[in-house]
Amino acid sequence: MITDDGCELWTSATGRGEPILCCHGGPGLWDMFGTLDPGPGFRLIRWDQRGAGRSEARGPYTLERMVADVDAVREWHGLDRVPVLGHSWGAHLGLLYALAHPERVSALVYVSGVGLGHDWHPEFERNFERALGERYSRWAELREKDRDEAEERELAVLQWTADFVAEGARHAEAMATPWFPINYEANAALSEEMRTVSESALVSACRSLPVPTLIVDGMADNRPRWAVDSLERALPSVTRVRLPGVGHVPWLEAPDEFRAAVVAFLDGRPGVS
Questions:
Q1: DSSP 193-247
Q2: How far is the CA of 123 from the CAs of 97, 194, 238, in angstroms?
Q3: What residue intervals traverse the membrane (predicted)?
């Protein structure tokens, strides 16, 4: 598909039933929802954000442009109002889209997001180092050097291994297959712009958000889950599901529990039978 500014985006629709528009994590990564199974009653709308994966490597890399791209994907698939499911950075992108276009979002599923503030990083870094254990030294070595493509992938797999409680290496290898170059320019630009938006401003905006929201937390996520508390308190219509013993990617570690939480939420919305 082509956006209004001429950027080519990769997108896919799989399954039959009610569509769910997915926003993957990153920024600068690609769609990793290939193993997400929401059940036979749903159709997954997936896409690679601009600059990464199978989409065209071109900016601008701004929050406004990314929100516009979400809307472009919705429109290209011929959808009016749609549930939006976002993971990690994609959870924040889904929230920003719902705030900008609440009339186009029937429900928001906020998975493993990092909340509205910016003070969770020190705890995350401590948790991350502890989770990697003896592998942390290799991760740090790779971070500091000029890397070829094989080392780029090795670094990513090491980093993603820490996102799981069990079988982290296997899950991380699956996430890195197929492999695409990471867009560090997009990551840096969007991460910096996110830091310019205050938590209080987002809390204020969320207080009037009419979109029913499901927050899904893996309670063993390295990113502290208290960071999401202010979002939960601000939303007028919110359900929160906490999955014990689950890390940052719950549909891989606890697929049945994750599917049950999402389906129960979407089936329980007003006006949905």
A1: HHHTS-HHHHHHHHTT--S-EEEEEETT-SS-GGGGHHHHHH-SSEEEEEETT--
A2: 28, 19, 26
A3: none
In a domain, 158, yes or no: no
Is the pLDDT score of 146 beyond 50? yes
Q: Is the pTM of this model over 0.90?
A: yes
Q: Evaluate whether residue 221 is within a structural domain.
A: yes
Enter the tokens of residue 267.
Answer: 């089936």
Residue matched to tokens 């997915």: 22
Residue at 160: amino acid letter? W
| Of residues 249, 254, 193, 211, the one with CA closest to residue 105 | 211
Q: Which of 143, 28, 147, 38 is nearest to 88 (CA)?
A: 28
Q: Residue 66 in contact with residue 88, Cβ under 8 Å?
A: no
CA distance 46 to 157: 22
- Decide: helix, strand or coil at residue 15: strand
The pair of three-digit structure tokens given for residue 11, joined into one six-digit string: 């997108």
User: Does position 272 have pLDDT exceeding 50, yes or no?
Assistant: no
CB 42 within 8 A of CB 105: no
47 occurs within a structural domain = yes
Question: What's the number of domains the chain is made of?
Answer: 1
84, 97 contact by CB (below 8 A)? yes
